[in-house]
Amino acid sequence: MTRLLTVARIQLVNKFAVLGMPLLVLAAVFLINMASYTVLSSPSPEGEVISGALMSIYCVMLAVHLQTITQVFPFAAGLSVTRRTFYGATALVVVGQSIGYGVLLYLLSLLERATSGWGLRLRFFTLPFLPQDSAPAQLLTYTVPFLLLAFLGVWVGIVFKRWGQPGVYTLVFGIGLLAGALAVVASWQGWWPSIGRFFVEQPPTALLGGYPLALAVVIAATGYLTLRRAVP
């Protein structure tokens, strides 16, 4: 465990890039939304202004951890850090950062509700599709997407280190081709109504927490297996 913490500190040498950049982007996007909706003349039909810009911090999380592999992995390998230790330290950073950001977003959502949307009836952190019934459910739905996108970024970075740009292009093309093939099969078999009912009947906690968490575990395991033969 001590070794993992040591390697994790290596990944956090540039704390601003890893920890600060997602928060900086979130703050900038939030302030832009506040400024925009301050001068907005007509509210939404429900009397509230709903923003989807919260997704910005999740996208930056993906980019940050993609750079973890492309920039930090070669440096760590030069210090004789094994791939297993490096990936364990990466997972430790990802989990800790995701939980921290999840708690932060939850606290900001409480503040947003307490201030009636920052005095503007703006819903930036309390999106309508997020569960509102319990604190653990909200924390889960804020935290799990961080895990999913961070491990996705790590995996894409590993693919780049192992196979270069052709590998990344192949991965993206393959995922797109698979999605297209599944869409064709679903249309051919008439599965879309059943698929729609499945998602409608699922609780938000399962859609935003349970299923993404399972997918994050699969991507994390795939990333580790891919890293075993990646060249620093």
Describe what this molecule looks like in 3D.
- The chain is mostly helical and 232 residues long.
- It is built from 8 helices and 2 strands, in the order ααβαααβααα.
- It has helices at 2-11, 15-38, 55-78, 83-114, 117-121, 135-189, 192-201, 204-227; strands at 49-50, 122-123.
- Strands 1-2 form a two-stranded parallel sheet.
- The longest helix has 55 residues, at 135-189.
- The mean pLDDT is 87.
Structural descriptors:
globular; 232 residues; 2 strands; mainly alpha
What's this model, at a glance?
It is built from eight helices and two strands, in the order ααβαααβααα. The chain has helices at 2-11, 15-38, 55-78, 83-114, 117-121, 135-189, 192-201, 204-227, and strands at residues 49-50, 122-123.
Q: Topology, please?
A:
Elements: H1 2-11, H2 15-38, E1 49-50, H3 55-78, H4 83-114, H5 117-121, E2 122-123, H6 135-189, H7 192-201, H8 204-227
Parallel strand pairs: 1-2
Helix pairs in contact: 1-4, 2-3, 3-4, 3-6, 4-6, 6-8
What is the N-to-C succession of helices and strands? HHEHHHEHHH
Q: Whole-number radius of gyration?
A: 20 Å
Main sheet summary: 2 strands, parallel
Mean residue pLDDT? 87
Strand order of the largest sheet: 1-2
What is the terminal-to-terminal distance? 23 Å
- Give the overall silhouette: globular
Task: Classify the secondary structure makeup into a structural class.
Answer: mainly alpha
- How many helical elements? 8
Beta-strand percent range: under 5%
Query: Segments where pLDDT lies below 50 for 5+ residues?
Result: none
- How many β-strands, per DSSP? 2
- Helical content stands at over 70%
